[in-house]
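Checklist before submission:
- one chain only
- standard amino acids only
- sequence pasted in full

Submission:
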Amino acid sequence: MATSLKNLAGLYDSQGKYAKAEPLYQRALAIREKALGPEHPNVATSLKNLAGLYDSQGKYAKAEPLYQGALAIYKKALGPEHPGVATCLKNYASLLRKMDRSQEAGQLEARAQAIRAKSA
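Returned file contents:
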């Protein structure tokens, strides 16, 4: 069920129908948290998806804690060198650049690049 909700939310998101996408992403997140526990990588993915939705709407203050939460879960569940961590770092860095926090963004981008270089 959570996957279907996420897929439909992603479709709405890609069409710019953010008001329809948001409750679906939120419901998918709630289902995954309840079914899998709050520290499961799929919960991190749901957090990242919701953060991306807010990011694309310019709701940076809402997106940032979600990216931070996703990153913490990925690091704990998958390890700090996992490619999923690198992807989340890159997404979070992109958000920070939009928030005029280029120095922080650069640090995250460098970390993401280092992880990708190790896994290549």
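Reviewer check: The radius of gyration is 14 Å.
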